[in-house]
Amino acid sequence: MKIPDDLMYSKDHEWVRLIGSVARVGITDYAQDALGDVVFVQLPNAGQSVEAGSSCSEVESTKSVSDIYVPVSGKIIAVNQVLSESPGLINSDPYGDGWIMEIEVADTASVAGLMNASSYKQLVEG
After folding, report:
1. Residue 1, domain member (yes or no)
2. Count of domains forming the chain
3. pLDDT (tens digit, 9 = 90+) per residue, 23-55?
4. What residues contact 79, with CB distance under 8 A and at least 6 apart?
5. pTM higher than the cut 0.85
6. Distances (CA, A) of 22 to 16, 19, 77, 95
7. Residue 122 within any structural domain of the chain
């Protein structure tokens, strides 16, 4: 299981790569492994304002359907349209081409509530 040190993580198994005030978001290697083969991704709507902790989309796998939760508050400024045609990228490259959305962060306090890699590792190894 990969847990890159340069990312932040939510308790709901989303990762965040902060670039200035933009947060690129996806699901973790742990989450994609637990889901199994991803067959469909319902992408959130670009332009939508979101609050940290709210559900904004779904990922459907051969095992189940799971909500994707917003790890930081702000406005969705981009979604990864490639996932519409290639949802399996979430399995094969969860921290790269399998990203789901980018959020312009409105509330820096929501970023402070995220975990670093070692804290996330403790969460998943429980």
Report:
1. no
2. 1
3. 999 999 999 999 999 999 999 999 999 999 999
4. 43, 44, 45, 46, 100, 101, 102
5. yes
6. 10, 5, 9, 16
7. no
